[in-house]
Hints:
Elements: H1 3-9, E1 13-17, H2 23-37, E2 42-43, H3 46-50, H4 54-62, E3 65-70, H5 76-83, E4 89-93, H6 108-123, E5 143-145
Parallel strand pairs: 1-2, 1-3, 3-4
Antiparallel strand pairs: 4-5
Amino acid sequence: MNENQCAALKKGTVVYACSGCSDAGELADRIARQLTREGAAEMSCLAGIGGRVKPLVNKANAAERILAIDGCPLNCTRHTLELAGFKNFDHLELHKLGLRKGSCPVTEEKIATGVAAAKAMFSNAAANPMVPSGAEASSHSLTSIKGPDRSTN
């Protein structure tokens, strides 16, 4: 992909959600979809990243920012992105917001909680530089994963 193609693809924040089979996975998916509807991010296909589908990997490479949303502590979204070579992304862990797998039926209120937490990450980006995995990035117990700049991939 040349510079012009990369620039044409570059769009703010791309969001990936675990979309797992539990209530927490459904909640992660619904939060990502709501962020997309509101124009705060653009949801893309995590399975495509795992499958190394070139146009979807290119989209992630071209993103100015990536948000990974995980519903439970297994962190499948984070692991999928890391295995594909992405190291520099924000990570929203719903269990750290008190939304626990098996006990968080999806409601509009819970979706709004996750959307607000994601938006807080976006707005706090300048005030909170990327920090190592596992470190607290805000009062919402959100983490940012730091690694090499993915724009050179």
